[in-house]
Automatic annotation (TrEMBL):
Highest taxon of the lineage: Bacteria
Organism: Shewanella pealeana (strain ATCC 700345 / ANG-SQ1)
A GO MF term: oxidoreductase activity, acting on the CH-OH group of donors, NAD or NADP as acceptor
InterPro entries: NAD(P)-bd_dom_sf, SDR_fam
Protein family per UniProt: Belongs to the short-chain dehydrogenases/reductases (SDR) family.
Gene3D superfamilies according to UniProt: NAD(P)-binding Rossmann-like Domain
Designated name of the protein: 3 alpha-hydroxysteroid dehydrogenase/carbonyl reductase
Pfam families: adh_short, adh_short_C2
Length: 259
């Protein structure tokens, strides 16, 4: 029975991933800000170094040091309390956890990491933004400072998703020889509390509501979770370092000639 850790397990995409992986026979170790009696066994704040280390320690304890899967769903959108938090959770909350759990993944059976990125990674960050470069330099203080000075949540969000996607692809190259697969899913608009908050937002709501995928609707969290389930299965054994758009055609609409 595969043991899989899932961040953001209490809501939206993360909760849907837990439900589908559990159905597929995985033992789930959920991580979120507050523990619950469903999937979230570990309460940890992934915005802070202490919280991330706390999560890593508890995963080692609960998995007994062997992890077959890691799915990073925890994230903040444009309605986050401040722009620095977007960077802290969406980038450093992912890279620290993936790196910190390397030893457990290396012990796993056909281990696989999936990180939830976003179609937004390719929007607004045509050339790497200084904020994204600071993230890729692992300079959390500078990246959060730039985000908080800029106060443009959509830029911080896009930069965090661009940087985390680039980091995952670099990690895929390094970890391929170790047999640990790493992939990124880039969703479009998914009906979750995060997306609802964006639609209701005074600053961004209208733009978010008007940005509709060619397929003519937003996705349900389960439609993202089913792709995660596939990537975590043996059937996906040669998919590695890929960015998989699950976006109803949004990326094709924005960048038909770039692939
Ligand atoms: P959600 O708000 O429903 O779930 C996010 C989860 O992350 C929540 O349970 C929350 O408590 C957790 N989280 C946030 N900050 C945390 C922290 N500091 N420490 C621990 N846990 C924390 O959002 P949703 O939509 O399910 O988002 C999941 C991922 O999908 C995010 O990375 C988001 O950026 C990404 N995404 C979502 C899209 C959408 O339209 N909903 C589109 C593209 C990407």
């Amino acid at each position: 029975m595969p043991i899989t850790a899932v961040t953001g397990s209490s809501s939206g995409i993360g909760a849907a991933v837990c439900a589908q992986l559990e159905k597929a026979g995985h033992t789930i170790i959920g991580i979120d800000r507050i523990a619950d009696d469903k999937f979230t066994r570990i309460a940890a704040d992934l915005a802070t170094a202490e919280g991330r280390q706390n999560a890593i320690n508890h995963v080692y304890e609960q998995s007994k040091g062997t992890l077959d899967g890691l799915v990073c769903c925890a994230g903040l959108g444009v309605t986050a309390p401040n722009c620095g938090l977007i960077v802290e959770v969406n980038y450093f909350g992912v890279t620290s956890l993936v790196t910190g759990l390397y030893d457990a993944l290396a012990q796993g059976t056909q281990p696989s990491v999936v990180v939830i990125g976003s179609v937004a990674a390719n929007q607004q960050v045509a050339t790497p933004h200084p904020m994204a470069l600071a993230m890729l330099d692992n300079d959390e203080a500078l990246a959060t400072q730039l985000a908080n000075e800029d106060q443009q949540a959509h830029i911080a969000y896009a930069a965090s998703k661009y940087a985390v996607t680039s980091w995952c692809r670099q990690t895929a190259v390094n970890w391929g020889p170790k047999g640990i697969r790493v992939n990124i899913i880039a969703p479009g608009a998914v009906e979750t509390p995060l997306h609802q908050a964006s639609k209701d937002d005074a600053r961004y709501g209208e733009a978010v509501r008007n940005f509709v995928a060619p397929i003519g609707r937003n996705s349900e969290a389960a439609e993202i979770a089913s792709v995660v389930s596939f990537l975590q299965s043996k059937q996906a054994s040669f998919i590695h370092g890929s960015v998989i758009f699950v976006d109803g055609g949004m990326d094709a609409m924005m960048r038909a000639n770039t692939f």
